[in-house]
Amino acid sequence: MADVGVDETLLKGVAERVAGEAAELVHEAWTGMNAGREVRVDTKSADTDVVTAVDHESERLVRARLAELRPDDAVLGEEGGGTAGDGVTWVVDPIDGTVNFLYGLPWFAVSVAAQVGGVSVAGAVVEPVSGRRWTAARGQGAFLDGRPLSVNAPSRLDLTLVGTGFAYKVERRAKQAGFVAGLATRVRDIRRNGAASLDLCAVAAGWLDAYVEHGLGQWDWAAGALIAAEAGGLVSLPGEDTELGPDATFAVAPSIAVPLRQALIDSGAGSI
Hints:
By secondary structure, this protein is of the alpha+beta class. It has eight helices and 14 strands. The longest helix is centred in the N-terminal third of the chain and has 27 residues, at 8-34. The protein is globular. Pfam families: Inositol_P.
């Protein structure tokens, strides 16, 4: 990655500020929705892959604030698209966990990350309902509401709690079901929470020992993967470990990384 003289601390502050403002908007909309206010819903890749008007409103707010604070930077958003720039590119997920949001389940977040050359150097994941703020900057550690984070150190594979997720397309979901069935007999248990950025943050906090999922978008992992890595996790991103599958994201506590990776391969991760 080329050194463009970025200030990771400054970028982390911008990410947290902007994600926090968007989270306030999302929380207000979620509260209104739960009180009976109608929220417009559309679909994307499948009928189960939803996007709400609030996703679009959140991303518009983030883009507007970044245009004020960092006018020379590029922005890549899940809903509005964009392309990477030569310097800093902001990667935005305006609501990660939209289905949870729509159902009233309070496990969703706004994720904002700064990348240089496709590598995350700062980021924030903010939960609208709880208000929790997960942050990290390259080489500076990871934090939850200012408290330093550190991954777990499970001693055995059968004591490992693993997070995962499923695709929207039925054909791929069927393969993932077989993969999970094979893995379930090898680990303590499996969790499927529905928001990739927060699952990666959960690894950083020791709430999960590992997380693996196929088919994530760049906005899904841009901030969360940095937070997991800065908390001491080992992270491989899509395209980096093809034995786990060409588009697998994997974050894991180092103490269990080798046997868990093998268990994932043995369970069919590479064929999903």
